[in-house]
Amino acid sequence: MNLSRLSFDASSTSADLVITVTLDNETLYEGPANGTVASEFNDDVEGVRKLAITLSNKTDAHTEIDADGNIVSDHVVEITNFNLDGIELDYVFYSNCVYTHSFNDPNVAPQTHDFFSTMGCNGTVAFEFDSPTYIWLLEKM
After folding, report:
1. Where on the phi/psi map is residue 61: left (φ > 0), alpha (ψ -120 to 50), or beta?
2. Which of 15, 18, 17 is nearest to 27 (CA)?
């Protein structure tokens, strides 16, 4: 079995925010959105793989808004230092991600945006890559 390793740093300003990491719908991590998340996965599966990082438990209480509707302070999760097989991806990671969320409003249909490292709403960052990862990394870098 050929194992690949992914890791990233998640920093949150609120202890009750949770992230769940799945690969091809299999949970690799679920817990506090703070610290280094590291997992190994089977790289013998060829084809497109889908990694999802989901933020949950964010409520209106995590965001302070002034009388004019401006955000004064907010609890967010920042995803940094994303590594795949020990190689820091940076631009390759961000340019291949999409962030789907509904602005924490159940009356708003989920929207998909580019991802720039910060998760400010309950939602999911999806990252697709090919396996074997080594060949995909060579093509993308």
Report:
1. alpha
2. 18
Rg (CA), the chain: 16
**Angular region, 104: left φ>0, alpha ψ -120 to 50, beta rest:** left
Q: What is the DSSP letter of 38?
A: E
CATH number at residue 135: 2.60.60.40
Question: How far, in Å, CA of 141 to CA of 137, rounded?
Answer: 6
Retrieve residue 77's tokens.
């999760």
**DSSP code of 122?**
S
CA 129/CA 109 separation, integer angstroms: 27
pLDDT, averaged per 10 consecutive residues of the chain (141 residues), comes to 74 84 92 84 84 92 91 86 81 92 91 92 93 82 76
The domain total for the chain is 1
This prediction has a pTM of 0.87
Domain with 128 in it: 3-140
